[in-house]
Specification:
Layout lengths: L1 H9 L1 H6 L2 H41 L10 H4 L6 H7 L6 H18 L6 H16 L7 H21 L3
Helix pairs in contact: 1-3, 6-8, 7-8
């Protein structure tokens, strides 16, 4: 039927010979067919433009070159994360030390208010270990002085508790 419509569209003489109702019907069929053809053509144009864009995008992408892999490198001894972390210099921020010193002083002030038990003694030992692990050379004079004073307070506290 499509071929018939196209032929009819081209053959105006035959269309004029039809009765007006039949001619109108055929012209509407031709018009409908033309609309469908136009829509399909627009759709194909749009798809073609998208295909062109895709091809251009693909052609602009550089394909990485293959590199040979040396399998022996996969099995070489390498430093583990643990060794790397242990060797990394530990930065000690003075604000953290001053904060810790303040917390220890608070604890020392409150220690005399309650009974001395194993938990208290463990906390004092832990404070002492933490204070002794801090390196003076990385601190300003003010922070080092506060650290030293706090170490002395903890030492006296241990002595008072009979821990030393």
């Amino acid at each position: 039927m499509d071929a018939y419509l196209v032929i009819m569209a081209l053959d105006k003489k035959n269309l004029r010979r039809l009765l007006p109702e039949d001619r109108l019907k055929k012209l509407r069929e031709i018009e409908e067919h033309s609309k469908k053809e136009l829509e399909e053509a627009e759709k194909l144009i749009k798809e073609s433009k998208e295909d062109i864009k895709k091809e251009e995008a693909l052609s602009s992408v550089d394909i990485p070159e293959e590199e040979s892999v040396d399998i022996t490198k996969l099995f070489d001894d390498k430093e583990g994360l643990e060794e790397t972390v242990q060797e990394a210099p530990q930065e000690i921020k003075e604000e953290n030390i001053l904060y810790d010193v303040g917390k220890i002083r608070e604890y020392v002030e409150n220690i005399g208010k309650g009974p001395v038990n194993n938990y208290t003694m463990e906390r004092v030992d832990k404070m002492n270990e933490e204070l002794n692990s801090i390196d003076y050379t990385q601190l300003s004079k003010q922070a080092a002085d506060k650290l030293n004073a706090t170490r002395n307070v903890v030492y006296e506290m241990k002595k008072h508790l009979g821990m030393k």
